[in-house]
Amino acid sequence: MKKSDVPLIVNGRRVDGRLPEELREIKMSVGEILNADGSARVSFGKTEAIVAVYGPRALFPKFLQETDAGLIRVVYSMSPFSVDERKNPAPDRRSIEISKVTKEALTGAIFIEDFPKAVVDVYENIVQADGSTRVTAINAASLALASAGIPMKDLVAACSVGKIDGTLIVDLSGKEDNYSESDMAVAMMPSKGLITLLQMDGRLTKEEIMELLKKAEEACKKIYEMQKKALLDKFKVEED
Ligand code: ADP
Questions:
Q1: Which numbered atom of ligand 1 lies nearest the CA of 133?
Q2: In the structure, how many helices (H) and strands (E) does the chain have?
Q3: CA angle 195-157-50, nearest 5°?
Q4: Which site from 9, 54, 61, 225 is most exposed, i.e. has the minimal number of CB atoms within 10 Å?
Q5: Where are the domains of the chain?
């Protein structure tokens, strides 16, 4: 754990003025990438993800096909210009890990048995990174999948929680992530109360983990309402 030179919580407020449980400003839009079957853009403060979904479409080579289920493939990538110092665009260990866990977080919410032998490709692009990119991208991916008409059990809503200067917080920014004592990424299907992603760095007591999970659930429920509104706004406008 790195130690910050300046305190990151002062008088109960975080460096950007937020209260411990406050989310950053969240923006969501659906359907901007016209070539894709589904797409979404989601930003949490300065972290922004654009996700495009293609499929279901036939899966080749054929030996990858499952006769009784479809396949979800996820590619997470951070653009070279998304961080202060140019990032090498080649996949690195971090992006391979995030692609894997995201695939698992999303697959649990999809009726994959509805499209046997087919694949749905999910391309997540981080165009600005300021902490919590994997959860921001999961929120966008879930919207993109729904807008592509992929049959889903529920939307997946995600957020980060953690501990900084002894305080439990929600939605970590880049600086907070850097200096946190611990951080957790949580994705869930809110209406079912099922967790589809849970990752943790650092050290926490059992009580802190339970408290953070509660805070994550509350935040995911708020995000879920915004996701539903983003989908309704998109498809209501098209109906008019
Ligand atoms: P997440 O973005 O899901 O929280 P990490 O904990 O791995 O995943 O990354 C935390 C933050 O560190 C990112 O959101 C980003 O702001 C920053 N970061 C990650 N990789 C790089 C990089 N290669 N260069 C600069 N900043 C990075």
A1: 2
A2: 4, 11
A3: 130
A4: 61
A5: 13-239
Question: In this predicted model, what pLDDT tens digit does every residue of 4-28 receive, in sequence order?
Answer: 777 889 999 999 999 999 999 999 9
Check: CB of residue 1 under 8 Å from CB of residue 177: no
Q: How many angstroms is it from 217 CA to the middle of ligand 1?
A: 23
Nearest ligand 1 atom, CA 174: 16
The conformation of residue 43, written as its DSSP 8-state character, comes to E
For residue 240, is pLDDT > 90?
no
* pLDDT grade for 238, boundaries at 50, 70 and 90: low
In this predicted structure, the answer to whether residue 3 has a pLDDT above a threshold of 90 is: no
pLDDT digits 0-9 by tens, 76-85? 999 999 999 9
**Cβ atoms of residues 12 and 20 within 8 Å:** yes
Tell me how far CA of residue 23 lies from CA of 18, 28, 62, 71, 108, in angstroms. Answer: 8, 14, 44, 33, 25
H-run or E-run covering 19: none
